[in-house]
Amino acid sequence: MLERQLLNNAEIEIKITYQHVKDDKIRSFVNMKLNICEALQQLKGMPIIRKLFLQLMSSSNLPCNCPIKGNILYSMKDFLLTEDTLPPYTPIINFNYSLAFYEDQQLIAKLLTQGSSVPKTAAVVRKISRKGN
User: Fold this and answer.
1) pLDDT, tens digit, 9 for 90 and up, residues 29-56
2) β strands within 1-133, DSSP E
3) In angstroms, rounded to a whole number, what is the distance separating the alpha carbons of residues 83 and 120?
């Protein structure tokens, strides 16, 4: 739980690495550090980011504007990227995603996620369809 409101100078560092399933080499896809409030305003205007953002908002209570309020337990549940978000030519990969949050250059929180893209199968489609009902 975030105990207090984040300062306006709070930053987020985003790192995404991936590895093709047939290859041992880990590659960097994204490595950037941004002011959180500025990023929330600017990134919503980018088409693929906007799609991801809308999906994220539908499966979480994460803030979409500043200020980032404190005394709230932010959570995310059943967030799923589908073929509506990723292009059909997306390769089968393993990925790591990390978010690091800073205030006054001091690390205050870190979120690490790992996962994989998987080929579309009838079983996955049925599972997604049932969640929508």
Assistant:
1) 889 999 999 888 887 677 777 777 788 8
2) 11-20, 27-35, 93-103, 106-116
3) 9
